[in-house]
Design a protein that fits this description.
The complex is a heterodimer of chains A (about 110) and B (about 120).
Chain A lengths: L8 E4 L5 E6 L8 E6 L6 E4 L13 E6 L2 E6 L8 E9 L3 E4 L3 E5 L1
Parallel strand pairs in A: 1-9
Antiparallel strand pairs in A: 2-6, 3-4, 3-7, 5-6, 7-8, 7-9
Chain B lengths: L2 E5 L3 E2 L5 E8 L8 E8 L5 E7 L5 E3 L7 E6 L4 E6 L8 E10 L4 E7 L3 E5 L2
Parallel strand pairs in B: 2-11
Antiparallel strand pairs in B: 1-3, 3-8, 4-5, 4-9, 5-6, 7-8, 9-10, 9-11
The chains are: A mainly beta (about 110), B mainly beta (about 120).
Amino acid sequence: SYELTQPPSVSVSPGQTASISCSGDQLGNKYACWYQQKPGQSPVLVIYQNTKRPSGIPERFSGSNSGNTATLTISGTQAIDEADYYCQAWDSSHGVVFGGGTKLTVL
Amino acid sequence: QVQLQESGPGLVKPSQTLSLTCTVSGGSIRSSGYYWTWIRQHPGKGLEWIGYIYYSGSTYYNPSLKSRVSISVDTSKDQFSLKLNSVTAADTAVYYCARARIAATGIDWFDPWGQGTLVTVSS
């Protein structure tokens, strides 16, 4: 099976940069996207096609994807960014694949 | 803007069939370039893709659920539906519907998502 691996948790101080990784075999050859999910809410797309931001998503959210790792970066992290983040990609053999999710804590 | 809303029973008995409907508003389910998708999230856990349908009726299911899942579409009502049979407690989850952007191969991303509906499997 194709798996995407994320760290269970990441902590960051307000105003600092948070980086959340997502690892998978040759992930850099696929498109990766990222979702933000706050408690009790539906996931929201924050990055698609590795680096693109949907309308309405703040510029502090950015993404990259190379080799086996995609990364979501939040610059100048704010308290409102505290949430669970999921990466997602498409695998030709297994269909849609989600990472296990990362809980971002803004201390 | 497109919005999605799930509806259906919140409680299903073991061995029975879970049935949910997603209503699309603010746009047409016949829009080219999109699949219509079901995704679930077990309590306190991550996201699991269930399957998707194109407005023409073409479907693609998660191999791990394929034997129990059926997704259908009603273009006259801008709705698509999920049926999951022979449910057990392990199927207790929040079920989301979402619009999926079609990629050159498969799916690119999911946006927007419905608000989700909790389905509990219990006698």
